[in-house]
Amino acid sequence: VDPPRTNFIRQIIDADLAAGKHDHIATRFPPEPNGYLHIGHAKSIALNFGLALDYHGTCNLRFDDTNPLKEDVEFVDSIQADVRWLGFDWGERRFFASDYFEQLYQFAIELIEQNLAYVCDLSAEDTRTYRGTLTEPGRDSPYRERSVAENLDLFARMRSGEFADGSRTLRARIDMRSPNINLRDPVLYRLKHGVIHHQTGSAWCLYPTYDYTHPLSDALEGITHSLCTLEFEDHRPLYDWCIDHVSVPSKPRQIEFSRLNLEYTVMSKRRLTELVSEQLVNGWDDPRMPTLAGLRRRGYTPAAIREFCERVGVTKSDNLVEMALLESAIRDDLDASAPRRMAVLRPLKVVLTNYLEEIPPAPPFTKGGEEKPPVDKSPQPPLLKGEEEEKPPFEKGGLGGFDQTKQLEGFSVTLPNHPKDASMGSRELPFGAELWIDHNDFAEQPPKDFKRLIPGGEVRLRGAYVIRCDEVIKDAAGAVTELRASVDFATLGKNPEGRKVKGVIHWVAAATAIPAEIRLYDRLFRVPTPGAGGNDYRADLNPNSLQVLTDCMVEPALADVRSGERFQFEREGYFVADPDTAPARPVFNLTVGLRDIWGK
Ligand code: ATP
Ligand code: MG
Ligand code: MG
């Protein structure tokens, strides 16, 4: 593995360690359990857990669960599964911000005792009006000068459930005229009656805000470097204010980095939640979703996602990352690791009319083996059923080899599982008198430079013979339903005599093919930044993002495929077996095509 690239955060950590500020570093990944993790979170996970690994420090998984209404254990579970799947381990270091509710409450009392927090009776709307705007200073709340004793009393009664939701908040007493709106007496606590929190049940009706909870949770856990996205940059003064004014055991440092934004998708949890709940996609793990669950089902590997995060890097400036960058990471991974297979997505029957009739004479061989037979580079088809079954002393194997001992219907070619990696072995691909080829590999009126099959033309069947199309069969509507072709038996593993055949197409033998369903995916949205034109982002959904092909034919080696197994289907792309795969009925998802199509 290459050493990680340096970035400004590593430079800060290096300097802190050199200055003796810490003897080990501690980071955390703090998701709110209100949705599934997406590729943006992967960047944060890879960064936080990656730093901990490289610096021999620790990384906590902390659920930032201060908004019980939108949260659920379903999300706690999925987040844990996804972090593990990505290849990271928090060990015993799993926490919930709600673990600290009692401690946070005591910290709030400390603030009140220092006259740094007060109970405010303004409504939510009035609180907003009093806050002012970017150009207008805020105004002091009429409740700002309450005595410490009154604030302590009211705060205790807020906890005990005496006051209705929205009637009171606890606010920090900072500066209503600060140019930074976050410092204009921010709300620290609000009332939420009747919600059952997934961790604390109904123990609390008083909930701390994110801006108050986050710094203090970091401090309680001894986090040294608290990494968050750029939009929290102007929350940092409040982050520091909180840890500076209560008796926390450590002082973490907040550092902001750029969010990951990806073209042709949305990443806000609100929008992802809408896509799921409005059934605009088939759930959180829909292969078109930018969620980790979706990418997993799409066939992405954890290594490819980590590599993508590494290639994206960690910077201080927000940018929109091209889909091609994500796709090249998985393509590179699968090019090296995925076994090759034949799959015909849009099957067109080809009948080889001379295959059964013209059986050329068997190659000469001698019994007893004193004499080696002449090396015949153009092996012929096998014997008909019931014919001579004596074994010729031929060596079998290699591309284009065939087994003379097999019956005609059992004839197969041996193909390597990977053209560049012999350790992946080979498999037998049965041949036959009836084949499936892809409709796209035949054209009656071929466009210029069409190197596949045309009427009267020749093409090579990958790993097998050259065939010539002799006849085109059509239905009443004029659609091509079948081709009649003839085999040139002299072309197995060698070039035809006296002419060049340029095209090579994939195929499967009809008698042994396995029917399969193949799901093709395109970008979920039609535009790089959905909703950027001021329209609802839903209007930018790509109506053709999913195409389901139910009549595909794949080679028999794919009969017992298990969910999650990845392949390259020759000339088509990389595919993964979907969890919907049933016995004898594989279902595959397109992970990514063979080439970058985003540039065109
Ligand atoms: P949203 O704003 O969509 O609700 P969030 O940032 O609030 O997302 P969290 O669950 O709070 O979601 O995120 C957990 C961690 O992941 C945070 O530290 C956050 O900064 C980081 N994170 C979230 N989205 C991205 C992203 N697109 N790029 C990098 N880091 C991200
Ligand atoms: Mg958040
Ligand atoms: Mg959020």
UniProtKB/TrEMBL annotation:
Location relative to the cell: Cytoplasm
Uppermost EC category: ligase
Keyword Cytoplasm part of the UniProt annotation: yes
Sequence ranges assigned to domain tRNA synthetases class I (E and Q) anti-codon binding in this UniProt record: 504-578
Documented EC number(s): 6.1.1.18
Region (Disordered) location: 362-401
Keywords per UniProt: Aminoacyl-tRNA synthetase, ATP-binding, Cytoplasm, Ligase, Nucleotide-binding, Protein biosynthesis
Binding site for L-glutamine: D64, Y210
Motif window: 'HIGH' region: 31-41
Motif ('KMSKS' region): 266-270
Catalysed reactions, semicolon-separated: tRNA(Gln) + L-glutamine + ATP = L-glutaminyl-tRNA(Gln) + AMP + diphosphate
Glutamyl/glutaminyl-tRNA synthetase class Ib anti-codon binding domain sequence ranges: 412-487
InterPro entries: aa-tRNA-synth_I_CS, Gln-tRNA-synth, Gln/Glu-tRNA_Ligase, Gln_tRNA_ligase_bac, Glu/Gln-tRNA-synth, Glu/Gln-tRNA-synth_Ib_cat-dom, Glu/Gln-tRNA-synth_Ib_codon-bd, Glu_tRNA_lig_a-bdl
Protein family: Belongs to the class-I aminoacyl-tRNA synthetase family.
Protein name: Glutamine--tRNA ligase
Organism encoding this protein: Chromatium okenii
